[in-house]
Design goal:
311 residues; alpha/beta; TIM Barrel; 8 strands
C-alpha cells in the first residue's frame, strides 16, 4: 500500500457549496405498496435495516423493489464514525434468535439476493462473526436459490473472526474502506486503513474464488490523487467490485460536506475504476454499498463463470 498522505486544511463548506442540494440528489418520498409490505414484515419480525438506521436516500426505490439490507447484531454501534447516523454506545446482549428471523424474512419475501450487514461489536471477542455465519447458513437452508452478500466490519483485524465468515461461504464479501487514509482519524475513529486492506488480502488467501467488494464515500475533503490511490490500493488486494457515492451529512453533528460531485464526475471515476481492473463499478451521487447489489452480483458471478469456462 502506498497511500498518499497529502495534508492541508479542509475547505470550509460554506465557501464552496451551493445553498441547496443539487437537483441530482433529489429523491421522492417512500410509500409504495411493496415498501409498506416490507416495513410491516420487518416491524413484525423485530428486524433492523441499515436503510433506516443510516437514513439511506434510496430506501423508497429499493424497498419498493423488495430489496433491503438487514442490520444484525443490534442497532447500537461500539464505534462513533463521523459520517454515520447509526446510534453509538453500549450495545445490548446478542440476540441468538436473530439468524432465524432474518432467514425467515428473506424466505417470506422470496428474495433472490440478500444483503446482511451489522454494527461494529467490539464488545464481542469475535466481533459478531459467528452470528454472521449463522445467518448465511440459515438463509442457504431456507432459500437455496438466494445469493448472499455480507457487508462486514473489520473485526478489529482478528483473522479467526474473518475466517468464520468466509468459511460460511457468502457469495459476496463486502467491507467498506469508506474514505482516504488521511481522513480516517475524523471519519473512522477506531478503524485503520491498512487493517481494512489486509482484510481483503486475507479473504483472498482464504477463498481465492470469493467475490469481494468495497465502497468509498466522496465529498469528505479527499483530494483527487488520494482518491485514485485508494482505488488502486483496493485493486492491489484484488477487490472485485467498487461502489462510489456522494456523502450526505446526516445531521449538523456529523462531518460537513466539502464537495458535491457531479454525475459527470462519477461517470469519469467509473471509467477509471474499470480501466484499473475492477470487475464492476457502481458510481453515482446516490449510490450506496447495497444499491443495485443484486445486479452487481449477477454480473460479477456471470463473469466468474465465463472465466472458468475459458480457463
Amino acid at each position: 500500500m502506498s497511500g498518499i498522505q497529502s495534508a492541508g486544511p479542509l475547505i470550509s463548506p460554506a465557501e464552496i457549496l451551493p445553498a441547496r442540494k443539487p437537483l441530482w440528489l433529489k429523491v421522492k418520498a417512500p410509500g409504495g405498496s411493496n415498501y409498506l409490505r416490507l416495513k410491516r414484515l420487518l416491524d413484525n419480525q423485530k428486524l433492523n435495516t441499515i436503510c433506516e438506521e443510516a437514513h439511506c436516500p434510496n430506501i423508497g426505490e429499493c424497498w419498493d423493489q423488495l430489496t433491503a439490507t438487514f442490520l444484525i447484531l443490534g442497532d447500537i454501534c461500539t464505534r462513533n464514525c463521523g459520517f454515520c447516523a447509526v446510534t453509538h454506545g453500549k450495545p445490548t446482549e446478542l440476540d441468538l434468535a436473530e439468524p432465524e428471523r432474518v432467514a425467515r424474512a428473506i424466505q417470506a419475501l422470496g428474495l433472490e439476493h440478500a444483503v446482511i450487514t451489522s454494527v461494529n461489536r467490539d464488545d464481542q471477542a469475535d466481533g459478531g462473526a459467528a452470528i454472521f455465519a449463522a445467518v448465511i447458513r440459515r438463509v442457504r437452508e431456507l432459500s437455496p436459490r438466494c445469493s448472499v452478500e455480507v457487508l462486514i466490519p473489520d473485526f478489529r483485524g482478528e483473522e479467526a473472526a474473518l475466517r468464520t465468515v468466509v468459511e460460511a461461504a457468502p457469495d459476496i464479501l463486502d467491507h467498506n474502506i469508506e474514505t482516504v487514509p488521511r481522513l480516517y482519524r475524523d471519519a473512522r475513529p477506531g478503524s485503520r486503513y491498512e487493517r481494512s486492506l489486509e482484510l481483503f488480502a486475507r479473504a483472498r488467501r482464504m477463498a481465492p474464488e470469493l467475490v469481494t467488494k468495497s465502497g468509498i464515500m466522496l465529498g469528505l475533503g479527499e483530494e483527487r490523487a488520494e482518491l485514485l490511490q485508494t482505488m488502486a490500493d483496493l485493486r492491489e488486494v484484488d477487490c472485485d467490485i467498487l461502489t462510489l457515492g456522494q456523502y450526505l451529512r446526516p445531521s449538523q453533528q456529523h462531518l460537513p460536506i466539502v464537495k458535491y460531485y457531479t454525475p459527470e464526475e462519477f461517470t469519469e471515476l467509473k471509467g477509471i475504476g474499470e480501466d484499473i481492473g475492477f470487475k464492476y463499478v457502481e458510481a453515482g451521487p446516490l449510490v450506496r454499498s447495497s444499491y443495485h447489489a443484486r445486479g452487481q452480483a449477477v454480473e460479477v458471478l456471470r463473469k466468474r463463470e465465463s472465466e472458468r469456462g475459458e480457463a
